[in-house]
Amino acid sequence: MKSLLKVSLLVFLYLSFFSCDTKSESSNPEKEQRKTVEMLTDYGTMTIELYNETPLHRDNFINLAKNGAFDSLLFHRVIKNFMIQGGDPDSKKAKPGDTLGEGDAPYKVDAEFNLNLFHKKGTLAAARNDNPNKASSAMQFYIVQGKIYNDSLLAITQQRTNKWMARDFFKNDPNKKPLLDSLQRFRDHGNKDRYTMLADSILSLAQAEENFKQYIIPETQREIYKSIGGVPHLDQNYTVFGEVIKGIEVLDSIAIVKTDPLDRPTKDVRILSVKVIK
């Protein structure tokens, strides 16, 4: 009976989201007033602005919040100097030791990558699985804590991003499928050396293509990563759709809690409520 009620709620949220008008965007979303939500947790309250440049993610998050979908869920994955992740509906009544991270609503949200939106400290982004279109989880999200980078680390990160972009560049090329399949196998089997060598080769092949555009971290973003920090290697690979504008200390407090080997806090960290305030 409980499972039936849960499925019914998720289907309701699904229908509510897709009945919203998400196409009535102005030509200059950066200048529009942003929607703001308040996330109350065991450790305090974070005020989060949602980006107008990512309307699908913004409207989906607002719809879920208005329907109480996040209330009483856990931050089920916490990694210091990286991020805190929540939104798994299975976490609401999870018992100690339960493995979490697979729960979601019965739909995904199309990726909305934007070169101006990046993983600086305090940003809100959408989790996802390894689906080829990089569509986002409808419910699971993370808030970036990250760390401060120097120029050398940013150069390594930029190269890493370009390797991912090279893989995406060839994903619809049947002639490159054997290479990409081999790359995935090396990753799945934890063969780091062979994975790195093949990823380098795929990047070299992409660089020889006229239509491949290499990613360069913009100078303004580099300075932010070198001052307040973040997680630059996730840029253009996971959708960023908001940022904490008040309560960043709450993020820091949650990020340092003790966790088990699967990164779940040993003492539950709960999202008490998420409310749209304007």
C-alpha Rg, in Å? 19 Å
Taken from the alpha-carbon principal axes, the silhouette is globular
CATH topology of the largest domain: Cyclophilin
H/E element order: HEEHEEEEEEHHHHEHE
Counting structural domains, the number is 2
Return the CATH class of the largest domain. Mainly Beta
* Spatial order of strands in the largest sheet: 1-2-9-6-8-4-3-10
Spans where pLDDT lies below 50 across 5 or more residues? 18-24
Major sheet size, sense and barrel closure: 8 strands, antiparallel, barrel
CATH superfamily of the largest domain: Cyclophilin-like
Q: How much β-strand is present in the residues?
A: 15-25%
CATH architectural name of the largest domain: Beta Barrel
| Tally of DSSP β-strands | 10
Q: How do the strands and helices of this protein lay out in sequence?
A:
Elements lengths: L1 H17 L16 E7 L2 E7 L4 H12 L6 E7 L3 E4 L21 E2 L13 E4 L9 E2 L3 E4 L6 H19 L7 H12 L3 H16 L11 H9 L12 E7 L1 H8 L14 E7 L2
Helix pairs in contact: 3-5, 4-5
Note down, in words, how this protein is organized.
The protein has 278 residues and is α+β, with helices and mostly antiparallel strands. It folds into 2 domains: 2-148 and 228-276, Cyclophilin-like (Cyclophilin, Beta Barrel); 151-207, no CATH class. The protein has 7 helices and 10 strands.
